[in-house]
Structures are given as C-alpha cells and as structure tokens.
Design a protein that fits this description.
It contains 10 helices and 7 strands. With 279 residues, it is α/β, with parallel strands linked by helices. It has one domain (2-278): 3-Layer(aba) Sandwich (Rossmann fold), CATH 3.40.50. Strands 3-2-1-4-5-6-7 form a 7-stranded parallel sheet, sandwiched between helices.
Length: 279
C-alpha cells in the first residue's frame, strides 16, 4: 500500500475514526506514513488513538471532536483542515436502524439518513471540489453488502447504503478526469461494536464475520483499481447471486433468516434475564 502515500500525498481525513473499520483505516494509513485527521464525537477516545498512532508511526495526527449530525458540521470540518493538503478522504461514520420500519421512532430513522446519506454526500462534494487542484486524490465511500438488495428489518439502512453504492459508482466515472480516484467499499458482517450491539443472533445467519482490519485493507487495495468492491469471498457471492435470481427471492429469504435470528436472540436474552433474577 505504499503506493497510496506516493500517489495521494501526506494527509488523509477519516470520519468515524474512533472504532471499527474507521479505526483500522487509521492504523493502516499510519503504518504507510500518512498524517491523519481523525474525526469522531468522543474527544477522549480520539486523543488516545491519536497519541498511540503518533508514538507508533511518527506521524502528525489532528483529532477533531465533531458530531456530523450538527448543523454545518461538514463546513466546520473543511474550514478546520483548510491549511492541509488533503489527498485522501474516507467518510466512515455510519449507524444502523434495525427493526420493523413502522415500529421505529422516525426521528431515529431521520438521524440515520442524515449520517449515512447526507453527511458522506456533503463530505464528498466539499473535498472533491478542493481536490480538483491536485494531481491525484482519493475517496473511499463505505456502503454495505446490504446495499445489493432489500433487507427486511433493515429497510431504511439498506436503502441508505444502496444510495452510497450508486453515488460512488457514478462519481468514480465523473471524478476520474479530475484526477480523483473513488471507490466504494461494501463490507458484509464485520466484528465491530456496530454489529456487536445489535439485538440479533448472527450465528443464525449464513454469514462469516470479518475482521475490521481485513475490510479496511480491502478498501485501500481497491482504491484506484475498482469502482466498487465487496469484501470477502462469501459476501461477493451473495452480491453476485442477486443478478441471477428474481429480486423478490433474496429479499424474502433474508427476511425469514433475520426474523429467526432476532427471535433466537430475544429468547436467549429472556432466559439469561430470568436466570439472573433467580440467582
């Protein structure tokens, strides 16, 4: 991956950098010698990560505590790094909304759409305009395996990630003439706090959890080579099979499997709670 530093310059911006795939992007780029702007909400965790990376990789790190749901957050970030020659941007912050669509509080869905759709779109627009004056630049958008079909119990989340996939594949062509490489990374199930906190028993699903470092490495290896990439062989198969089946078939299948996984989780949680009370 040393080619990335030579091609895109010395500064990279990563949102959602405190944990999961975003944190692994930061660690991998630090090893390659990138200076980093790390963006997330929690300042103590940002400072801890920044100090670790500076000590281990001898790089510059600028931690930016920022809630991307706040008004004008992207403009605030852009102004805060205006003095830097940013050549790589990875909008990695995101959130899920699991559950029956009509049973969800719409305010939560609205926040998810802002973070998963509006924020990365605005970040891409703002930084792509700034990058136009550079010889080579890169952007990695983070979608999901769920972007490739409808997913009951994740309806709005899957739709938000489908938007990112289509946006990124389109911009891959649009921005190429401006020297900007853009790729879309679509992870499947990944072992992060994002998935660990879901009320669902993933062992009931035909999915294998990937390590976040492997997912981040897949995204970096794809940059400048592919418009989009699904991480993991099994996940690639799931995305590919949708081209052969009627669109309703995988949607109905995953709806059944996810309903079962949620039910199993609920029964186990109830048993655990009952056992705790008995003790």
């Amino acid at each position: 991956m040393s080619r990335l530093l030579d091609k895109y310059g010395s500064w990279a911006v990563i949102t959602g950098a405190n944990s999961g795939i975003g944190q692994e992007f930061a660690k991998l780029l630090a090893k390659e010698g990138f200076n980093l702007v790390l963006v997330a909400r929690r300042q103590p965790l940002l400072d801890e990560l920044a100090n670790t990376l500076k000590a281990e990789a001898n790089i510059e790190v600028r931690p930016v505590a920022l809630d991307l749901l706040e008004p004008y957050a992207v403009q605030t970030l852009a102004k805060g790094v205006a003095d830097l020659d940013v050549g790589l941007v990875i909008p990695c912050a995101g959130v899920d909304e699991m559950g029956r669509f009509v049973e969800k509080d719409y305010a939560s869905i609205d926040k998810m759409l802002d973070l998963n759709v509006k924020s990365p779109t605005e970040l891409t627009h703002v930084f792509a305009k700034k990058m136009e004056g550079r010889k080579h630049s890169g952007i990695i958008l983070v979608s999901s395996l769920f972007a490739y079909q409808g997913i009951p119990n994740f309806a709005a989340y899957a739709a938000s990630k489908s938007y990112i996939l289509i946006l990124g594949e389109s911009l891959n062509v649009e921005l190429k003439s401006k020297g900007i490489d853009l790729t879309v990374l679509s992870p499947g199930l990944t072992d992060t706090p994002f998935s660990q906190n879901m009320a669902i028993d993933f062992s009931q699903l035909p999915m294998i959890a990937q390590k976040p470092a492997d997912v981040a490495r897949c995204g970096l290896n794809s940059l400048g080579k592919r418009s989009s990439n699904v991480s993991g062989l099994l996940n690639k198969f799931y995305a590919w099979e949708n081209r052969l089946l009627p669109r309703w078939a995988p949607v109905k299948l995953f709806g059944f499997l996810i309903d079962r996984a949620i039910a199993v989780y609920g029964r186990r949680a109830a048993k655990s709670g009952a056992a705790a009370k008995a003790n």
